[in-house]
Amino acid sequence: FSGQPCDCLPPLRAAAEQLRQKDLRISQLQADLRRPPPAPAQPPEPEALPTIYVVTPTYARLVQKAELVRLSQTLSLVPRLHWLLVEDAEGPTPLVSGLLAASGLLFTHLAVLTPKAQRLREGEPGWVRPRGVEQRNRALDWLRSGGGAVGGEKDPPPPGTQGVVYFADDDNTYSRELFEEMRWTRGVSVWPVGLVGGLRFEGPRVQDGRVVGFHTAWEPNRPFPVDMAGFAIALSLLLAKPNARFDATAPRGHLESSLLSHLVDPKDLEPRAANCTRVLVWHTRTEKPKMKQEEQLQRQGHGSDPAVEV
């Protein structure tokens, strides 16, 4: 076959085209590498965020400062937050006043003493009487009309303030994620609470984005079988319902319902925390310290220096 013409042009042209396409792709990749990355999405400025009003009742006991320090340091991680700390006392105590002043948080310090008839008697278990009722209601009064603040911010939110109200006891454990879940609440938002009601967690059951029931073992027929740590309320809703308050005479386990029944129908609750499948708050309890050695030393006149704040 020597001497016959070779038809080599088509394969050569195809190979040349492949090389050209590769060179073009390499040039495009190099240009992409030289191009500056897109600016990341900027979070809203703190001033544009609704304010979270965290209401915490507290009372004097050995672990009070430890509990409040832990809670305050969690709250300090949350932008646009206002702490309403309400003492069960006739007036402000130096311990709580000093802690608030050192916290770096925007706060309002309130105080109201629980009436004697509502106080736990010696030896009574904690569940016999609802606790913190007067203190939470005092915070609601301040949000609606101000007055009575013994420290910190004295004036209530101005009209039109965007905000949400959350009742955070001083002995629970909170993920900072929880506060961003509740921030944009329109009415009443809900989520599960861990280690409560004798269960691993207690909370709403959600189907197609709506609350259809509650996972609870104790008195499941309560109007709102939720824990105090399991809901938040839009400030505008609370202000629009001035008679909505906690009822100190509510039956055991119905304290939350005594407030929520004035505000929302269960079917209109707003599920948060991935449709109530994530636990972001835990109903923890600090063990009561045993003070036998302290008492013994005190009897001998060698107790710990009372001037050292614990």
Write the layout of secondary structure elements.
Blueprint lengths: L8 H26 L16 E8 L5 H12 L5 E7 L6 H10 L2 E6 L21 H13 L5 E2 L10 E5 L5 E2 L1 H7 L5 E3 L2 E4 L2 E9 L2 E6 L15 E4 H6 L14 H6 L9 E2 L1 H4 L4 E2 L9 H8 L11
Helix pairs in contact: 2-3
Integer-rounded radius of gyration: 29 Å
Helix content: 25-40%
Shape, please?
elongated
The major β-sheet equals:
8 strands, mixed
- First and last CA, distance: 105 Å
Strand content: 15-25%
Enumerate the spans where pLDDT stays under 50 for 5 or more consecutive residues: none
Compute the number of helices: 9
Strand order of the largest sheet: 4-3-2-1-5-11-7-12
* Average pLDDT: 92
Count of individual beta strands: 13
**Given the helix and strand composition, which structural class is it?**
alpha/beta
Order of SSEs, N→C? HEHEHEHEEEHEEEEEHHEHEH
Main location: Golgi
Active site: 256
GO molecular function: galactosylgalactosylxylosylprotein 3-beta-glucuronosyltransferase activity; metal ion binding
Subcellular location: Golgi apparatus membrane; Membrane
Protein architecture, described:
The chain has 310 residues and is of the alpha/beta class. 30% of the residues lie in helices and 19% in strands. The strands form 3 sheets. The protein has an 8-stranded mixed β-sheet, with helices on both faces. The protein has a 3-stranded antiparallel β-sheet with strand order 8-9-10, with no helix packed on it. It is elongated and about 115 Å long. The model has no long low-confidence stretch (mean pLDDT 92).
